[in-house]
Amino acid sequence: DIVMTQSPDSLAVSLGARATINCKSSQSVLYTSNNKNYLAWYQQKPGQPPKLLIYWASARESGVPDRFSGSGSGTDFTLTISSLQAEDVAVYYCQQYYSTPLTFGLGTRVEIK
Amino acid sequence: QVQMVQSGAEVKKPGASVKVSCKASGYSFTSYGIGWLRQAPGQGLEWMGWISTYNGNTNYAQKLQGRVTMTTDSSTSTAYMELRSLRSDDTAVYYCARSGNANWFDPWGQGTLVTVSS
Q: What residue in B sits closest to A108 (Cα-Cα)?
């Protein structure tokens, strides 16, 4: 199974500041035949289901604000919130879909400082 | 808009079975698969498996093999997940989500809380 390790577990960021979340996979999720990274990011607010933010490691889902961006390749990935807003308080998860069982990181809680 | 609407909360005794439904709307049901996931209280997300709504092919998480069955009814655009021989550690919110073949999940249902308690 591919293990997804997120860091940090939590972070507190001032409104308007940048938040950076890291995700590392235990093996590469880059499929060389199509040069795509099989990595997605989700946002989960309390009492709600997860919401897809990013797929293919860097493709923003329709309707997701452009302050959210994904980067990285192979085994190391980053979700960046360029200017944190109050509504971004949530837990963020990375997920690999390179191979089954599909696996998630344990989540990173983002709060306002 | 695309929506996944799940059945309501359940309370079950250990050893019982539960069947959760997930009704899809706003898209062609057989054009996407359905993934099932769960989240224990205060915990992260666990993938349970996936079903093709086109031909019924399934891919289950190994730890649930033999206890889980996923089915679909294309006439009503509804997917079902049955979990048998329930244990206390099956207590969780269960989610369905639209998915391609071993893909990302979008959108998710609202979740169904299944509580297993004697």
A: B44
